[in-house]
Design brief:
The protein has 350 residues and is α+β, with helices and mostly antiparallel strands. Helix content is 25%, strand content 19%. The strands form three sheets. It has a nine-stranded antiparallel β-sheet, sandwiched between helices. The structure holds 5,6-dihydrouridine-5'-monophosphate.
């Protein structure tokens, strides 16, 4: 049996175990909504910014005059590190105390430099910080979640280029489901699910956005957001801590190229939520060494659909039934391939 991909169809996401409805025929419908607004250039230093070097943060603490990446404990952490851990045993009202730490990572002292605008060696510094933070927090916590929430459209509180790190004593849902799915596949086929995916996607090429010797960026077959991408290592590694020097270098390069393509697509600083999924460090308190089934990967979830201001809303059917998309993942990959991954539109304009 085959599927006519020009007709409405549903694609399975083997990582989440969930489905997405694809409706390519709807792309022809008329659009009378808003189009892009011109962007204001950001200054390199903003005296009102909580994250710029030398400035006073919201809680009165003063940032050092940092020159590269700067990591600090979140002043308003969502997680605390209590000694007394408790749980309810009521099946209807289950709860347990959570413990963890939250940190903020400023990518650059320059307020105006988002990741694609940083030089390769500066992005490499960010990669090193992600790896170091993972190593340090993985000693104590079951899961280390590194993420970047970028752009006002994503609810990001500050335009200064930054990300966050939350480490938790428990394994959060999204990581847990990626862990279970990969474990199941490994038990069924004796191979890593995401390394198999890498081989198939490189060969097919139709969903590839960027590729180098060590990394691959694709619009996944099951993508729910219009320009969602998945960044995958082409070598086995369960965590960021497993990356050697050339692999980190190559990661900085593909990160810059992918985010440059994103910005060039609608000539805007492309908003997204991006984050790494890496293998848990503990399972019920027991250390987890280096699971062969688990492959490190990063998800990019950008909300934009047609222009710098027209976004996809995950509402209605999506909230109540399952995600739906019009643009096919193959077409989205083609659109991202059609813009430059080397020259950023802001650098061309300068
Ligand atoms: P966003 O990634 O959503 O913009 O969040 C930035 C984080 O920075 C947010 O969690 C923290 C907020 O608590 N923050 C500080 O820790 N100190 C400050 O002075 C401002 C913001």
């Amino acid at each position: 049996m085959s599927v006519d991909f020009a007709k409405p169809h549903r694609r399975y996401n083997p990582l989440s175990g969930r489905w997405v409805q694809v409706s390519p025929h709807r792309l022809d419908r008329p659009w009378q909504g808003e189009e892009a607004e011109p962007e204001e250039p950001a200054p390199s230093y903003d005296e009102d910014c909580y994250l710029c070097p030398g400035n006073t943060r919201n809680n009165g603490e003063v940032n050092p005059d940092y020159k590269g990446v700067y990591v600090f404990e979140n002043d308003f952490p969502a997680l605390l590190d209590p000694d007394d851990l408790g749980a309810t045993d009521d099946p209807l009202f289950q709860a347990h105390t959570t413990k963890g730490v939250c940190r903020v990572i400023c990518f650059s002292p320059d307020h105006s430099k988002t990741l694609p605008l940083l030089a390769l060696d500066e992005i490499r510094e960010v990669v090193d910080a992600w790896c170091d933070q993972t190593a340090e927090l993985g000693e104590r916590f079951a899961s280390v979640q590194i993420f970047e929430n970028k752009g006002a459209m994503m609810g990001c509180s500050n335009p200064h280029p930054h990300g966050q790190i939350w480490a938790t004593g428990h394994v959060p849902d999204e990581v847990y489901s990626a862990d279970c799915s990969q474990d199941d596949y490994y038990r069924d086929f004796g191979r890593s699910m995401l390394l198999d995916l890498v081989d198939r996607e490189v060969e097919a090429a139709e969903r590839v956005v960027e590729v180098n010797d060590d990394w691959l960026a694709i619009v996944p077959y099951w993508a729910a957001w219009p320009f969602q991408t998945l960044l995958l290592p082409r070598f086995p590694t369960a965590r960021l801590t497993g990356l050697d020097d050339p692999q980190r270098e190559a990661l900085a390069a593909i990160f810059k190229a992918l985010t440059t393509r994103y910005d060039n697509l609608f000539k805007t600083s492309f908003p997204y939520s991006m984050g790494w999924h890496q293998a848990p460090f503990f399972d019920d308190g027991r250390p987890v060494e280096n699971p062969e089934y688990f492959q490190l990967h990063a998800h990019f979830y950008p909300p934009l659909l047609r222009s710098a201001s027209v976004r996809k809303f995950m509402v209605g059917y999506e909230m109540l039934a399952e995600p739906q998309r019009d643009l096919t993942p193959e077409r989205a990959a083609e659109m991202l391939r059609a813009v430059s991954g080397k020259q950023h539109y802001k650098e061309l304009a300068a």
